[in-house]
Each structure stands twice: as C-alpha cells, then as structure tokens.
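Subject: design request, 1115 residues
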C-alpha cells in the first residue's frame, strides 16, 4: 500500500504544486498581456464583434467615440470612457457595459435611441466579459504593417534549393534534414542521437496508427538487423487500416465533426443518422491515399465532380459542409459556419472576420465574404439524402422499410386530417367569418394570431383567407363570384336584416352580373339576417366545389377559378399542407420524424446515406449585409473567390465546383502550406507556423520557412500524396532523433524551433483510451466504421474512440477533460492541459478499474502469489518491454501492501448477541459479546442472527439488520465497532421504537475501557438521540451499541438505530463523518455491502502502470 499511496500523492501533489506556483507567480509578476485560445477568439468573432459593429460602432468608433469610449479595439474597451472603466474582465455582473445593455436600474440604457439588444446578444456579451474579453491580437500603433503583397504566406509556393551542410556530424538522411541541419550548424548545434529501436518502434506505431505495438511486434522490429527496417515498418503501418483511423481523427477536428446537430427546440431529435458516413469516408480516403487536392474537392463539391452519380460513396465527403451545428435552423449562422470551416480549415484564413466589415488586417473585404456566402446560399440540403450503399441484408432492409412505411403512413394520415379539416363546411364558415372580421376590424400581428388561437383556427390558414377577402372586397369591381359578398359586407351590423332583402333583390334580378351559382343559391334562401349567413352560403358553395360534385359548366368553373387561385389556402395540395401547421401540428410531425430518425439510427437494415448539399435550380448572388445585418442590404456581391487570390467569378451552378478548384489549385499559395503544417504539428507536437488556421499577415514567418516551402512544393509535385509526405518526414534524422536535450540546447534552442531534438508528446485522449483497451485485450481492432457507439453501450470498450458518439449539445465529460476538440466549431489544434480531474480519472474512475481488472485476470498467476513471471507478462503487455530487477521487487512490495489492506478493511462493524453481566447487587455492568453465526439476505432486507430460524429456539428474535434489529428475551442484540486509531470521536444516532405495544427497550453505549457511556429506556412509540458529544478513544478500544428488552418482554421490540461515528479535530472542534452503521453494514465476507470491494492487488498494479509516464507519453 505504501507504494500505491506514494505514487498517488506524487501525482496529485505535482498538480497541486503546479497550481500553487501558477497562483504565486500571477500575484507577484507584472500583469502580462492576456493570451486567448482560438476557441475564445472564434466566439468573439462570431458572437460579439457583429453585435458591437451593428449596435455600437456608430457612436463608439474612432473620432466618433462618445464619452471617449471606443469599442472597436480591446485597448479601447479596456480603457473605458473618459470617466470610468466599462468592463471588469471575468466579472460581468459588476461591469458597467453589461449593466447598460441589460437596462439595469441606475445604468444608462444602451444602445442609445435603439431597441434593447436581443437576449442572445446580451448573453453573448456576458459570456465574452466572463471569458476575460478575448480579442484577436492587435498590431502595435495604428495597425500599420507591411503591404500584404509581401506577406510570406501569400507568395506562390516555390521550391528552394536544398542547403549544403559542411559539418559531417550533421549529415542529412534526406533533403528535409538538410534544411534543419543548416540552421543547427549556424547555431552551433547538432542533431540528437537517433533514438533506440524500441522507442522508435513504439513512436512509429502510435504516430501512424494510434495504437501501441505488441511486445512481439516491437521485438521483431528491434531485432531486425537491416538498416532499412524503419522504412519498411513505416510502409507497413501506412498500409494498415488503422492509419486512416488515426489520421482521420485529426481531420475530423478540422471539420468540427459531430454526430448531432446541436441545441434544438420543439422536441426535435437532434441526432444526425448519417454523419458517420462522412467519418468513414475520411478514414477510407486516407487509407487509399486519395490525393489531397481531390480529398478537398470532394468535400466541397462531390455532387458536381464529373463521374459522380447518385450512389457514389464519394458523396459522403460533403459531410464536411453539412455536419456542422444547425443553429436551430438559422440559415445565416449555418452559412457563416460553413465559410469558417472551409476557409480556416483549408486556407488558413479567417474570412468570417469580414462578415460585418472589411478584415482588420488581411486583404479580405466584406464583399469577398458575401461572394462566398452567395455560393452557399445557392446550395441547399435535400429533404432526403441519397443512398450510397446497401443494407446489411435484403431481409433487414425490408424490415426497415416496413417500419418506416408505418410512420410515413401516420404522417400521410395526419396531413390528410389537417387538409380535410380546412374543407369541412362548419370549419369553412368559421374561417370565412374570422377573415371577414379581421378585415373589417383591421386585426393583424399578434392580435390576429391570438384571436385565431382562441377560435381554434390555424392562424396561417386564416391569414390566407384574410388576404383572399381583402383582394375580393377592397375593389370597386369585384369578381362576379364575390359580388354578393362585397355588397352585403357594406351593410352595417345594426339594420342588416332590414336592408338585406333589397340587396338580395338587386343581386338576383334578371340581368344581374352576379355569378349564376351564387345568384341561384341566394334566390333559394330567405334574405340573410346577418353577414354570417352570407358567409355560410359561400361556405356551402365552396365546399360543394371542393368535393367535385358540382356541374361542369362555366358558372361553376368561375367559382372554382376564384376558390383555387394560387394565393388561396384551398389551392394548397395535401402534401404541402405543412405550411399551415400550428406549433401543436409541428410537434406532432416532429414526433413522427423522430420515430423515423430513431429507426434510421438503430435499424441494421437502414442503408447508409450521404449528407449531401446540392445546387439550387436558380443560383443567386446576395447583397452585402451592412454591419452583418440582413435588414440593411448593400451592393450585390457576385459569387466568386477571394479577390487577393485572383477574384475568379463563379458561374457554374452555385459555384461550389469552381470554389473547390480554386482552393485545391497548385497556384494557390496557401492550401499545400496549411496542410503540410497540420501534418508537421502531429509529428512533432508543434507546428512550423504558429497559428495553424491563420496564415494571415498577423502571423509571422516560421523559423523553418524554407523547409515549409520545400515540403509544400514536394507535396504537390508528388501528386498531393499524404503518405509520401509522411515518408519524407518519418524517414528523416530530424524525426527519428532522441527527445533527450542537453544544457547547450536548452540554452540555444529552448523552444526546439531549430529542431535540435524530438519532442516528447503526451497521448491524446483517443490514443490513451485506445491503448488502454488494446493492452487489456478489450479492443476489437478489426471492427471498423459504422454508426456511432453510445457511451453506455455494452460493447463500447471494444470499439476505438473514433467511433464513439460525438455529441456537440451534450459533450462527454471525460474526452473534454483530456482536451478533446470542441465540435461546436473548427478546431485548429488541441492544446494540452494539466488539470486535477485528469489525475482523478486515472486513479478513481470505473473505466480504469474495469480495464485494469480485465488485464489482471488474463495474466499468468499461480495461487495468490504474484511472482516475477506475472510481473514480466504485465510489463510486456503494458509497456512492451521486460521489467528490470528492481521493478520486479518494487511491484511485489506494492502487491503485498495492497493484500494487507484487503485483509484489514477499515471501520469494521461486527454483530452479535449480548449476555448480560451483573455485579453482586444484580445491576448490569456490561454484556458478553457472542458473534452472530449467520448472515441472511434477501433483495429487500439483510440481517445477522444466530441461525436462519426466526424465532430461534435458544436466541429467540435476537438479530441486527442494516438499520436496526430486535433483542431476544434472554439476550440483547449488539453492534460492535473497534477504533482503528487514537483520537477523539463523537457518537450520534436516533434510537426509535415506533410500535406502541409492549413495555419498551433499553439502549446502551458501552466502552470496554470506559464503561457504560449511555443507558436509556426507550418507551413504546418514542425515540431518543443516543449521543456522546466527545469521547477520547485509543486504538483497539471497543464500543458496543446494545439494545435489550425491558425485563425480558420482547413484545413489539423491533427498533431502528443507525449509529454514526465522527472524528473530532482537537484544534478547531470540527467533525468529519467516519462511518455510519447502515451505510457500512457488512456481509458474510465482512465488507460493507454498499461500498465497492477493494480492487484486486494485481489489478491495482496494472492501473499504476497504465497511469505511468512511460505509458502516457511517447518519447
């Protein structure tokens, strides 16, 4: 146990020390310029800057800054007004700006002379201040910088000459090394020695597949005498299907992959049934070494690429654009998100910063943003995605179609019910009457919708009828069909009956222009007494027309032409009736759609589909939204590419195909550089270019610019092959060198920008989890692809982390804890954190305990001893090496300590009968403890007694259960606790005899060293707190909790007593709960039934190795 405790204290202590050091340094050093994460900057650009630009800049920008407050720069925000600060970073509740936009009492409401900001806008500003007011890094002075034309990243990729290195110690293995060696030579440094074969082998396996090698695989590599063994292993691993799984996950970070849409309303199931087809396409494409330019083109315009058909698996690539957050169906935010993931992901440009204004630093005008916006607004996501594969079997497909058809039939029936309801005669009268009233009384907006709801009418149907009435009655020359309606509607409500006869005569007389159908219907009926009767007449005529039973003559055709004119609600066919749905109707349809989605998610017969995007029939350019506000349209922005990259205008469909070609062009200076930099990041832990998704003018040229250019040019020359790029990097001295540094290198190359050594890297979440389930034998690596696996699925630990569900709305805690990419937005790279929760997970989580136990059960072991054979097998499995002699000895000591702890459970309670002991006068002085012999248990109750018989012939009802018990006629029942320490305790617990019958019970607390501490009679139907406020105890001192019958009468003597023992701090008197008798009630194995059993000692040793740096890091 000593080793285990020391290890855990070291681990948690390191975290604590780091936190303490951080706090100390923060309080003693001058305030540094804040550093914000890429996610925080993205939040600002997408949610905060647009609000400031639209609502604040008109008064608080540049020379227009009222009260001296400038809100167009962080410096201006932090400075505040001429009189006071307006924000306190991290404290929105006390920030003047937040109080102003909330219109808080005593604050000047802002924005001035404008409506209050929307709730979501206010919340965005609150979160921004809470984050510390993140803002993109600003250039010094007035942001003047060198012309963008000279910026390194905007220059066409040209392949530089390979340097010649004179120093023989720096002999390069390939041209990559020559560029590195040239800078090392200039700095007076050398490569680190090549790392040993065992470290190199593990590094290659983890780097390329995300899985560790087996001991046997690593030994085969170590013992391979051929000098090209590393190159052969690299080729083998690049050909492994697990390569695509490992490197596919990196791209999914870029693509903000998720299996869910994000937050939704109205009860909508927010899961994507087919996002997995995109994930699997990425894996398959990387395994096939699809050229990177094609890889990009498919993800932007697979539906437009020549040769693509409705069933092409490459259509799944469009998930790059469609698996993002749907923002509760907000098209504007969806398009912004697509522009962001496209431009930052492929070009390393923050184009969305130009949404509200020209880019602050880069040559990207707002017009360019809307030129690309037009491309996506000219595209649409279809109602039904195309099938791109077959179901697992015809039988299962038929079952799937049967289930879906049943739901579709319910949807059809529901639409028909709504459709028919609008056409019933009584409902028609109600709609027409309300439409007439709304026109007469000018009822609009919320009042109109509210009144329609009161009348149980669908407001959108009623709205169409209202417009129908306006068209046909607000004209001096109404249609003959509507002439009677027009005439009668002019009559006042009072006196209507008296005047209507004359109107009727006028409309029905010989030669009247009134439509004959209406005229005849009027003639057959008495003069209407109210307008409602007129509308009833029209309802009857209209319904007759809708049934198709009317004569087919010119007069009825005229009625039909008016009733079914395009703007009429009656012209809408049954399959388009959704447009009239109320919220309740929509919720009903949502439930049906959720049923179908559930079937698609779970049925093995559901064929895979591609989440495509298609061109609209009529593509269109959009106008610039001034300050990002759709309500303020500016000039038209023709669809096209970024102006500074040529500004090509698009004319083929939406323009996505042309956009894809422009991005994946060899003439584009950014595309290859951005991807090479992303690959380099994963191989070395740090990128060549510091900002992996921002190659704009604010990002300085990398130290190894020539190397980046050479790799980028070679990448394109070699057909954009990612596998060839890997080969160049992995076969280099630069990559294969040791991670060990020297004092000279620590001084001259502290950040390793000169690449004088390899960088030690911690396993990311997926590699850590996958390695654990791999070495413990739980993983089934052959099972690849398919629907996402729920985190609580029975087989979850047999699948690689890549296949676990990614839920952007309800993100899993553990992956996030280990820096998993946030699927809400494009993730440039992962930033390693060290937080206490990581150590707690590794030490205490059920996952770690379970995996450790699984491996422990598979290790060879004779009897209960852990010999060197067991420990050797464990080291081979977990660390892929043989243990050293001292490691075997240390492991054996650790296991022995853990076994001792298992044999001595803390706070052990015992249960027994008590035989009274009396003095010469007959007074009870104590009880002889006789342990119970039998543990009894059912689902509902657990108890200890002398036998299973109740009552027992000798011991009567004597027993102790989880929360109490029953004394016998001759023996008390006793609960015993033995102190494991010297110290002060407090005892508390209510003794309750609830039954009103009998003569009561006697409760005692007795110390074997201090005598009777408490002795009370508990009368029928009463209770008492049996408390000892403070008691000094010594190790081994016994405390008995005794319940005896009063004078041998055991009638109704069942009781409830749950003693609790608290430790008392002798300095401040504070108490800490040590144990409660009911919560720590023991079973026959003498372990508390409500506490987890102690981990197997060998399992604990497995867990220690899984937590070790050697397992968690790659050298």
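Subject: RE: design request

Done. Sequence follows.
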């Amino acid at each position: 146990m000593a080793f285990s405790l020391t290890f855990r204290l070291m681990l948690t202590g390191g975290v604590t020390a780091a936190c303490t050091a951080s706090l100390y340094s923060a309080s003693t050093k001058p305030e540094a310029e804040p550093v914000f994460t890429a996610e925080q900057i993205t939040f600002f650009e997408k949610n905060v800057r647009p609000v400031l630009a639209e609502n604040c800049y008109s008064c608080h920008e540049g020379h227009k800054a009222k009260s001296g407050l400038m809100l167009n720069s962080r410096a201006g925000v932090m400075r505040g007004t001429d009189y006071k600060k307006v924000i306190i970073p991290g404290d929105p509740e006390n920030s003047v700006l937040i109080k102003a936009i909330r219109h808080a009492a005593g604050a000047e409401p802002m924005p001035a002379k404008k409506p209050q900001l929307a709730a979501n806008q206010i919340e965005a500003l609150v979160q921004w201040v809470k984050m510390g007011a993140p803002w993109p890094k600003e250039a010094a002075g007035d942001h003047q910088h060198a012309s963008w034309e000279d910026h390194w990243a905007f220059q066409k990729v040209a392949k530089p000459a390979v340097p010649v290195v004179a120093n023989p110690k720096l002999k390069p293995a390939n041209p990559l090394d020559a560029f590195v060696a040239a800078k090392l030579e200039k700095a007076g440094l050398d490569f680190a020695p090549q790392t040993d074969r065992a470290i190199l082998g593990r590094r290659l396996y983890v780097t390329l597949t995300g899985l560790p090698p087996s001991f046997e695989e690593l030994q085969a590599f170590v013992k391979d005498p051929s000098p090209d063994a590393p190159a052969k292993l690299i080729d083998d691993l690049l050909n492994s299907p697990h390569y695509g799984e490992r490197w596919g996950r990196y791209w999914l970070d870029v693509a903000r992959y998720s299996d869910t849409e994000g937050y939704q309303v109205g009860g909508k199931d927010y899961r994507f049934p087919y996002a997995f087809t995109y994930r699997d396409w990425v894996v398959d494409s990387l395994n096939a070494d699809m050229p990177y330019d094609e890889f990009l083109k498919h993800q932007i315009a697979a539906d437009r690429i020549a040769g693509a058909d409705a069933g092409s698996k490459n259509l799944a690539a469009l998930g790059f654009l469609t698996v993002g957050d749907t923002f509760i169906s907000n098209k504007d935010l969806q398009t912004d998100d697509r522009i962001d993931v496209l431009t930052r992901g492929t070009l390393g440009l923050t184009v969305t910063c130009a949404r509200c204004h020209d880019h602050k630093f880069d040559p990207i005008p707002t017009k360019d943003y809307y030129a690309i916006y037009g491309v996506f607004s000219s595209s649409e996501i279809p109602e039904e995605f195309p099938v791109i594969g077959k179901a697992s079997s015809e039988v299962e497909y038929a079952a799937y179609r049967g289930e879906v058809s049943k739901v579709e039939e319910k949807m059809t029936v529901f639409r028909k019910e709504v459709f028919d309801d609008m056409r019933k005669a009584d409902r028609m009268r109600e709609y027409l009457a309300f439409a007439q009233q709304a026109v007469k009384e000018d009822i609009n907006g919320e009042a109109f919708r509210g009144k329609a709801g009161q009348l149980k009418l669908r407001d959108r149907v009623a709205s169409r009828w209202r417009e129908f009435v306006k068209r046909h009655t607000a004209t001096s020359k109404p249609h003959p069909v509507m002439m009677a309606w027009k005439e009668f509607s002019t009559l006042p409500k009072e006196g209507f009956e008296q005047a209507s006869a004359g109107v009727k005569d006028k409309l029905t007389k010989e030669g009247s222009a009134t439509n004959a159908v209406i005229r005849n219907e009027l003639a057959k009926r008495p003069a209407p007494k109210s307008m409602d009767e007129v509308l009833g007449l029209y309802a009857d005529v209209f319904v007759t027309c809708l049934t198709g039973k009317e004569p087919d003559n010119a007069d009825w055709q005229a009625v039909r032409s008016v009733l079914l004119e395009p703007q009429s609600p009656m012209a809408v066919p049954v399959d388009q009736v959704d447009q009239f749905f109320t919220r309740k109707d929509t919720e009903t349809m949502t439930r049906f759609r959720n049923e179908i989605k559930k079937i698609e998610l779970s049925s093995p017969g559901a064929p895979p589909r591609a989440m495509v995007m298609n061109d609209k029939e009529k593509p269109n350019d959009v106008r610039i939204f001034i300050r990002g506000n759709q309500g303020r349209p500016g000039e038209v922005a023709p669809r096209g590419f970024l102006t500074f990259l040529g500004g090509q205008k698009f004319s083929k469909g939406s323009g996505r195909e042309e956009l894809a070609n422009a991005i994946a062009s060899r003439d584009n200076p950014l595309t290859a550089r951005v991807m090479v930099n992303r690959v380099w990041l994963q191989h070395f832990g740090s990128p060549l270019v510091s900002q992996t998704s921002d190659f704009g003018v604010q990002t300085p040229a990398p130290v190894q610019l020539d190397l980046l250019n050479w790799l980028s040019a070679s990448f394109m020359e070699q057909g954009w092959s990612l596998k060839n790029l890997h080969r160049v990097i992995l076969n280099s001295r630069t990559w294969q060198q040791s991670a060990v540094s020297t004092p000279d290198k620590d001084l001259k190359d502290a950040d390793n920008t000169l690449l004088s050594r390899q960088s030690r890297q911690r396993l990311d979440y997926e590699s850590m989890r996958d390695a654990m389930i791999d070495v413990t034998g739980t993983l089934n690596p052959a099972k690849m692809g398919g629907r996402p696996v729920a985190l609580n699925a029975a087989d979850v630990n047999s699948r690689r982390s890549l296949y676990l569900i990614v839920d952007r709305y309800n993100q899993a805690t553990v992956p996030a804890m280990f820096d998993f990419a946030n699927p809400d937005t494009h993730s440039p790279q992962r930033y390693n954190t060290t937080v206490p929760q990581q150590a707690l997970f590794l030490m205490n989580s059920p996952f770690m305990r379970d995996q450790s136990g699984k491996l422990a059960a598979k290790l060879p072991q004779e009897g209960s001893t852990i010999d060197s054979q067991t420990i050797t097998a464990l080291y081979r499995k977990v660390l892929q090496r043989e243990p050293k002699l001292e490691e075997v000895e240390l492991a054996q000591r650790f296991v022995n300590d853990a076994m001792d702890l298992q044999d001595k459970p803390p706070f052990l309670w015992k249960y027994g009968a008590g035989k009274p002991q009396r003095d010469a006068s007959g007074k009870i002085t104590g009880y002889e403890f006789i342990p119970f012999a039998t543990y009894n248990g059912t689902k509902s109750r657990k108890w200890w007694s002398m036998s299973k018989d109740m009552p027992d012939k000798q011991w009567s009802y004597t027993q102790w259960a989880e929360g109490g018990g029953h004394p016998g006629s001759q023996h008390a029942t006793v609960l015993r606790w033995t102190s494991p320490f010297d110290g002060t305790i407090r005892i508390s617990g209510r003794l309750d005899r609830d039954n009103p019958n009998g003569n009561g019970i006697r409760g005692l607390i007795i110390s074997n060293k201090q005598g009777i501490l408490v002795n009370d009679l508990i009368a029928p139907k009463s209770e008492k707190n049996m408390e000892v406020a403070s008691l000094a105890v010594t190790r081994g001192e016994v405390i008995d909790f005794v319940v005896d019958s009063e004078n041998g009468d055991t009638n109704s003597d069942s009781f409830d007593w749950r003693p609790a023992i608290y430790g008392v701090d002798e300095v401040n008197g504070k108490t800490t709960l040590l144990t409660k008798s009911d919560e720590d009630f023991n079973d026959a194995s003498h372990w508390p039934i409500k506490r987890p059993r102690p981990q197997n000692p060998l399992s604990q040793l497995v867990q220690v190795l899984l937590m070790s740096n050697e397992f968690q890091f790659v050298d």
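The mean pLDDT is 91.
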